[in-house]
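Hey team,

Filing this mostly as a record. A colleague (T.K.) asked me to run one chain through the structure pipeline before their review meeting, and I want the input and output archived in the tracker in case anyone asks later how it was produced. No errors, nothing strange. Just documentation.

Input sequence:
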Amino acid sequence: MREKFAQIVLAAAVLDDIFGVVVLAALYEFSKTLQINVNAIILLVLYIFTFFLFAPIVGKIFAYLVSSLSKKLDTLDFVPPVVVAVILLFAYAAHEIGSPEILGAFTAGIAFSRRFTIPFAAAFQADKAIIHKIEESLNPLIWLFTPIFFVYVGLQINLKAIDFTSVNFWILSAVLFIIALLTKLSAGFVIRGTLREKLSVGIAMLPRGEVGLIFAEFGRLSGIYDNTLYAVIIFVVAFTTLFAPIGLKKIWSQKETEF
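Output structure:
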């Protein structure tokens, strides 16, 4: 995490998810009407970016108020339920403007981040102890709901509806994986650094992970594709997620001179 390439990956992953959410929102609107309304899409994108610009600022003010209140009450016990309430509030607000709820929760996380500060308003920075308490309090929720989410996604796969002997299934899976691999590796070579760092950025960006699964679930619920295509997406998500740590371990287990 302290390596330069890791910080690049974290920043790029955040932007990648933001752009992905915007595309998802546009596709979601298309799935409801089956028509491409350019004006509606532009308006939706403006709504999303406006929300994304102002929501973290509002959230930062919330974090500052929570921090100030905890100092006056001399306790941190009320922080976890308040944080959960704020996250749900932001998710609801995102839903109301027509964007996926994940965008609201995501911006709430940015707002509570210790690395996010409001320009020209440094006084609204929350106490580090509060941020640490938030991180600690959210861990049990992550341990509880993350496995449930993955189990839920797995339950939606109808293996009987998938013909694993079908050549199309394996060709489509291979094509999606090759596209994911080549595009991520090529992106790694944009940065300055050693060959090891370039490869590390590319491989670290390869996993499609939980956001990819959320997008796949939206597509399934919207009826955009059938069970076979849904299974292909899940398969590629799983394979890229497993491939990345193995690739990183292989790269960093070798000597620097080999690069």
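Quick notes for T.K.: The two ends are 21 Å apart (CA to CA). The chain is about 75% helix and 0% strand.
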